Amino acid sequence: MSRSVLVTGGNRGIGLAIARELAAAGDAVAVTYRSGEPPEGLFGVRCDVTSTEDVDAAFAKVEAEQGPVEVVVANAGITKDTLLAIMSEDSFASVVDTNLTGSYRVAKRAVKAMMRKRTGRIVLVSSVVGLMGSAGQSNYAASKAGMVGFARSLARELGSRGITVNVVSPGFVDTDMTAVLTEDQQKTIMAAVPLGRIAKPEEIAKAVRFVASEDAAYITGAVIPVDGGLGMGH
Hints:
45% helix, Rossmann fold, KR_dom, oxidoreductase, alpha/beta
């Protein structure tokens, strides 16, 4: 049965791979994007997840196009990496506002319809950095770690309504964000990954597809690592 799905930050990278994977499974998939153009073949809505008004408007457009959102994937995120000693308060706050508080805005807007239907899937895209930490990424790590506590609290709140809330935690993935790394940096990363390579966006998407599926109906509050073994033990 086709479901109404919304993927934030779904016009490129991991988000686009997730949107295409869910569309291939037969779902009606909409994506939000802040800049650029919507991807071909998907319903696109311009939205800045740091704006509650934007999020409300995006959901209204998606609901009018394909019905109440039954699966939401909070993927939109940014980085502003630098060492704490020289990190501005704005650099810290803006990353947390986009990555963590943006997920709160999206989940809050989605959950009322899910509660009425007594079913739903909420998936938050975190990062191995949120559990391992990373020098120069204290803002990003804080935002991604916060998703875990947020998701597990929601899982306890919403479980009785048939709504699952899970976290997918990617490691290093072949996207625009990692494309800027030097060859030496990529070699260092791959040396730390037991599988010895960077992930493809489609590998993250398949994990999201699973936790959003009926097959995962008894999984909630989980953190699913898709990191080649980099974060083992976390």
